[in-house]
Each structure stands twice: as structure tokens, then as C-alpha cells.
Amino acid sequence: MLIDVNSYVGHWPFIRLKGNTLKEQLVRMDRAGITQSVVFNLNGIFYKNVQSANEELHEGMKESAAYRKRFIPFATINPIYSGWRRDFEDSITKMGFKGIRLYPLYHGYELTNPACIELAKMAKDHNVPIAMALRMVDSRTSSWLDINKEWALKDVLPLIKAVPDAKYLILNLANNSNFGAFNKEELAMVRSTKLLMDTSGRMVMELADMVKNYGEDKFAFGSHYPLLDPDTGLLRIDALRPEEATEKVKNLIYNGNAKSFFGL
């Protein structure tokens, strides 16, 4: 059984995507044996009013009972855009989204922004996870029109420190995201927080060491599809040798940690 905690529908303005609809995602899931997928709408990055992207995804989910059963939809919220509190309430309480997605680099705010911290506290109070990616695409090969800043795992710590009892989904680990980047206090914070990281990012080539140092409950299969290929995130788990991870630990990464994190 597989649960993919990082997939997308919608469009990316700088490259042509395939497999970026709910229908196409479902085909991919069936082929790969993926039972459920967390899904984000890429359009929420680029729409001035991100709620339009949430409404799109909500309307799409209503088209099929299979979509509602197989997808775990997250709403994009921009905490510096007028009406974001209403967007949050409508998305979570009326449309039934299971988490929220933040894009600070694209929407132009710091994680220490008071509105962002307020949003994280609202998510905590509603018991829904907060998702962020360290990068969407590799800045070295991105369009000249795209942003070229990327984060390391340490860059998300200010929000975790401000709201430590929220749940965080950290995606596409890149750059200096290994345990050596932290001091003892920071490493203890990562280990103690309800935090899940996916296997799609470049730094997860060191998955065995990361599991050892962050904890076996901190990782879950994620593809970052269709921006990345659908297989690499899975191969990183499959390739773990017996001395690196028991079958129990591998199953936690395949599905167990996601089940616990999302209450499935």
C-alpha cells in the first residue's frame, strides 16, 4: 500500500505538464499501486486570488466519488492577501479541505509575518497540517521569469518555533537539509514536532541517514508529480538495504506515517 503525500494538478507557466488533472493522476495512482494522494492545485501559486484555485479543486473533486475517496485535497492560503481568514474558514469548514499549503517565496512574505503565524495557529486549532516546499523546481534550470531562491530545511524553523504544536508537511527537501545543519536545540525541535517530510527532494538521497537522525516517523513517500518524475521518490525507499531500514520502517514510509499524520 502506498500513500503519496505530494502531488499536483493545475498548470506551471514555464513548462508543459502531463498528468496534471485529477483524472490523469488517478490513472497514475492505479498503475503505481497508490491508494491515496495528497493533492495541491498549482494554479494557487499564480492566481492573484488564491481562493479561485481552491474552488477549482473543490469543483473537480465533486466530479467523481473516486476522487473524493482517493485524494486528500489541500487548500492554498495566502496570509497577506485580503480575506485570507475567510478563505481558510470556507476551505476547511465548508469545502472540507484536509490541510493548507503555503508558498511564502512566491507570495512574498516571511514565515515570521504575524499573519502567517496567526494562520498556523488557526490550522493547529482546526487540527489540519501546514504544507510547505523547500523548492518547487530546481532554480538552476528554471525559467528566467521564475523565482530563483530556494530554502533549506532550517528556513522553516521560525514558523515551527512560533507554533510548535501544529502539524507540518515539508516537501521536496533540497540544499542543506541534513541533520548537520542544526544545532542541538534545533535538531531536538525537528524531532519533537509533528512533522512529516516527503521523499521527492534531492537531499533524500541520504534517506537512511536522515531516518536515523530525524526519526523513523518523520518520512513518507512523496512524488512531487508532475513537476518531478513519478518514480524517484519511491525508488529511494525501495533501495534501502536491510541494514539501513527494516521492512517495518519501510512500511512506515510507504504508508504508516502518512496514515498516522492524516488520521486515515
From TrEMBL:
InterPro entries: ACMSD, Metal_Hydrolase. The keyword Lyase applies. Keywords: Lyase. It comes from the Bacteria. PANTHER family: 2-AMINO-3-CARBOXYLMUCONATE-6-SEMIALDEHYDE DECARBOXYLASE. This is Amidohydrolase.
